[in-house]
Amino acid sequence: MTRPMWRSSSVRVRRVSVLLWYCAAALLVAGIAGVGIVVGGQNNPSVVNGSVPIAMIIGWAVTQVLPVLFTLGFACAVAPFFLLVVHARRSTGTETEPDTGPSAEP
Amino acid sequence: MPENSRQNPDAPPFDSRHDPRFQRGYRGDDTSVTHVAPTGASARTLPRVPAPLRPEPPDERQHPEVREPPEERRSLEERRQLEERRQLEDNSAPGGWDDDPERVEPAGDARLIRSRAGGSLAVLSGIGTGLILLGLACVTFTSWTDAQLIDSAPRDLPLLLLTSLAWQLSAPALLVGFGTVVGAVVIRILVPRAGTGS
């Protein structure tokens, strides 16, 4: 008397999707905050005329970190839809099936 | 004029103190309450208290289950059929839908899953297209505001922040957008649908 696979896997897919959306939100917020920090640092005279390592960190963040943060954020936001599409296709098999009307209903 | 003095002239004069109708708290034939003033000279009657409303009989058109006979009157066969029907409606019960490992969900379930999950390739392609458009908009905005930032002598900080954000967002949005559209096409081609064998 085992429960069918699609019922338990749908719960798992839903949980993973929620987790990925949380991760996406965190990454995008971190990226936006990073942009704010970098722009604020670039316009701060004490930072601009300060030590070289700070300018290097800002340059490294602009060129390396922020694009990765935004890319991962967008990817995590989109990935649950991939999961849901694949799960729906494998479990139902009616992806493009048209509605057959009242005759299909019991 | 009092009643007894009108019928019998020899009767003693009417004294309201001996008439129970004029006593405090007297209740007559009906439910009305007669209050007599301490002197017994005047009386006033409070309005009759309305009777409590009787509950209306149930409307059988709105509640068809009312027409069904009670459980005691059902025959054994009817009760057995009813129990089987309840078990089949309960998906987790033996014989229910969940108990059948070979069960293929009807179209209604498929629509339900898709509507809950939003899992359709059209949604995925739409998200990818939206991200591509977002990336293009960011690139356009960046190139448009760059000229304004060069002209502005004291740097406009909000505009600079927006420009920097758009510049940072443009490449990931384009990358993930194209990836999403390509992924939707790959899923359509490679992932088979259940029950179709393709």
Average pLDDT of chain B, rounded to a whole number, is 69
Please give the number of β-strands of chain B: 3
Rg of chain A over CA atoms, rounded to whole Å, is: 23 Å
Main interface: chain pair and counts: A-B, 45 and 52 residues
Shape of chain A: rod-shaped
What does this structure look like?
The complex is a heterodimer of chains A (106) and B (198). Chain A is built from three helices and no strands. With 106 residues, chain A is mainly α. In chain A, helix 1 runs antiparallel to helix 3. The longest helix of chain A is centred in the last third of the chain and has 40 residues, at 52-91. Residues 94-101 of chain A have low confidence and may be disordered. With 198 residues, chain B is mainly α. Helices cover 48% and strands 5% of the residues of chain B. Chain B is built from five helices and three strands. A three-stranded antiparallel sheet of chain B has the order 1-2-3, with no helix packed on it. In chain B, helix 4 (121-151) runs antiparallel to helix 5 (157-190). The termini of chain B are far apart. At the A-B interface, helix 1 and helix 3 of A face helix 3, helix 4 and helix 5 of B.
Keywords:
heterodimer; A: 106 residues; mainly alpha; B: 198 residues; three-stranded antiparallel beta sheet; 5 helices; 3 strands; 5% strand; elongated; disordered N terminus
